[in-house]
Specification:
By secondary structure, the protein is an alpha+beta fold. It has a single domain (about 5-215), classed as Aminopeptidase (3-Layer(aba) Sandwich). About 30% of the residues lie in helices and about 35% in strands. The chain is built from five helices and ten strands; from the N terminus they run H-E-E-H-E-H-E-E-E-H-E-H-E-E-E. It has helices at about 5-15, 40-55, 65-80, 125-140, 155-165, and strands at about 20-25, 30-35, 60, 85-90, 95-105, 110-120, 145-155, 170-180, 185-190, 200-210. A ten-stranded mixed beta sheet has the order 1-2-4-5-6-7-10-8-9-3, sandwiched between helices. A hairpin with a 5-residue loop joins strand 1 and strand 2. The longest helix is centred in the middle third of the chain and has 15 residues, at about 125-140. The chain starts with a helix and ends in a 5-residue tail after the last strand.
Length: about 220
């Protein structure tokens, strides 16, 4: 089986098999939570909608989310073979955040980590660090991907601290242009937006981590 076929088959397995999950291990390698694929249910859509609206300005598109719109978004993720969104759930099954994988490049053997969000603040201190580390371990060792990257607004200092704790290294900085539509605002990377002599309203920074770092 080609590597691409293997990766897509594993993603499909974890996306659609009910009992498939990734253990999140904390101190002393103890399981403290799980990564479990988001399902197209109204319950999941209501949770994600609440979190999306609460943390709107952390995303690259700003709009007021609805449950029906979130259901369509979940459906688009389920339909796309190279994307998966995991709920971060405590040992009792309560969702406390989410994190995903997307944009696999099988020629470069890399993928993007996206939708990193803590939805419930008071649950399991440090869980986002452990969740990201556990997902990276799964990507490197189960999917055999060589590197992962992620994008974040430069002024999202809390998220950047998380990524640095998990060993990510600053890769590049790109200017972003605001596009205002009737119902939403999009922040779009500007081609050549890394030019240090130009000023942009916002900047997006890329961080990268390679499997060779942990060998």
């Amino acid at each position: 089986m080609l590597h691409k076929d293997y990766v897509l088959s594993v993603i499909h397995e974890y996306k659609f098999e009910q009992k498939k999950n990734i253990p999140i291990r904390g101190k002393n390698h103890q399981v403290i939570a799980y990564l479990s694929s988001v399902k197209k249910t109204r319950e999941h859509a209501e949770i994600l909608t609440e979190w999306r609206n609460k943390h709107m300005y952390s995303f690259f598109t700003w709009f007021h989310a609805t449950v029906d719109g979130t259901l369509k978004w979940i459906e688009s993720i389920m339909d796309r073979e190279d994307r998966i969104l995991f709920l971060i759930q405590n040992l009792e099954g309560k969702p406390i955040g989410h994190i995903g994988l997307t944009n696999f490049d099988f020629e470069k053997n890399t993928c993007e980590i996206d939708s990193v969000l803590r939805g419930v603040e008071e649950e399991l201190p440090g869980v986002m660090t452990y969740a990201l580390e556990s997902l990276i371990d799964w990507v490197f060792n189960r999917l055999k991907i060589d590197s992962v990257y992620l994008r974040v607004f430069e002024d999202n200092h809390k998220a950047i601290s998380l990524y640095k704790r998990c060993g990510f290294i600053l890769w590049k900085r790109v200017g972003a242009r605001k596009i205002v539509e009737r119902d939403f605002i999009r922040w779009v990377e500007v081609e050549g937006g890394s030019n240090i002599f130009l000023n942009y309203e916002k900047y997006i920074v890329y961080f990268i981590k390679e499997r060779s770092q942990i060998r």
